Amino acid sequence: MGGLEQTAVTLRHQMLVPVALRHILPIGVTGLFCALALFLMVSTDTTYLHSWGTILVQDIILPIRNKPFKPKTQLLLLRLSIAGIAFFAWVFSFRFGQSTYILQFFALTGTVYLGGAGSCILGGLYWKKGTRQAAYTAMIVGMFFGILGFAVSSWWEGYFYPTLNVMAPQLLEEFRVLLYNAGESLPFVNWSVEPEVFRRQFPVSGQEIYLIGMLCAIGSYIAVSLLTCRKEFNLDKMLHRGKYNLEHFIDADADRNILEAEKHHRFNWRSLLGITAEYSRGDRILAWSVLIWTLYGFSVCLVQLVWNLGFGIWSEKNWFNFWRCYSLPLALLVGAVTTVWFTWGATRDLRRLFRSLRNPGKASGTEADDGFVKHDRE
């Protein structure tokens, strides 16, 4: 019953804003908002299904098989994978009750894949000593922390705490004291480990479990790579750099700054962003905008971190004022711009998609472009 009570409390807190909006917004605007929320749910779910389905086939099954499928077979596997994930989500929803905030839940469940995915992507693309064994190890470690964290957070009050309290009460108390001491030493955590609170809810949040999973996955990726790497991978050939960058050497003046930076191993922002001669003006504007926006968001987060660590933790009123005077206006501005931008871009790209489907022979892609990467350590 404890798990159901915690789920009810969580849902009650999360429904405060929707219920308030129902009384604040007029009827017509409320209907538009509900329609928009429904469309967003559909687009998000389809994107998730496509993403996870392709990840299973392209990033797990294909590397294990080590040779490509026929196009029809690969398309069938992708469809079956997507349908299987949809069926799992449908069945799982009957047995699961959310016991934490939605963003914490996203971080917690995301650890299952994202905990180790970052190590595989960054290590695989930018480290010549990265190995397949290290990638699988990192994914397993991230998955372990994700599943363990999800299970403990969801069934702490109903199963884990009562079981440990009976079978190993001393160990449970030592764990509580350890969390208390760690919380006192680390100013950026806020773990509630009072006995009554500790009994009802696991103190470590989903975001913190996500961080622990990522750090352990990174460490395991580096360690296993160093132990299993027998021959360095040819990153230049895979990424078409250096002597393999034939497209840019056709024109002696093309990407001169990038070529000089590669030649002298000099840091170059354009090279970091991957801006090449093929980029149009719009592509360059988009690439720079994404970088500036990301750095700006990181700077704001860094200022908040320094302020709270060095000058005192913000009160709930301060956080509310920050949300009201900064986050909300910025979200409205960005939302207005991206709504126009995405509506126009999505309409244009959708027309191009149907045009390409009507004329498959004129499409730029080929059947060989199936996402399969051959292993080459020359």
TrEMBL record:
UniProt GO MF annotations: transmembrane transporter activity
Keyword Transport: yes
The UniProt record lists the keyword Lipoprotein: no
InterPro entries, A to Z: Na/Glc_symporter_sf, Na/solute_symporter, Sodium:Solute_Symporter
Bilayer topology: Multi-pass membrane protein
Keyword entries, A-Z: Membrane, Transmembrane, Transmembrane helix, Transport
PROSITE patterns registered for this protein in UniProt: NA_SOLUT_SYMP_3
Organism: Victivallis vadensis
Domain of life, source organism: Bacteria
Location within or outside the cell: Membrane
The protein, known as: Uncharacterized protein
Family assignment from sequence similarity: Belongs to the sodium:solute symporter (SSF) (TC 2.A.21) family.
Residues annotated as transmembrane: 20-42, 76-96, 102-127, 134-156, 209-229, 285-307, 327-346
Gene3D superfamilies with a match to the protein in the record: Sodium/glucose cotransporter (1.20.1730.10)
GO CC, any one term: plasma membrane
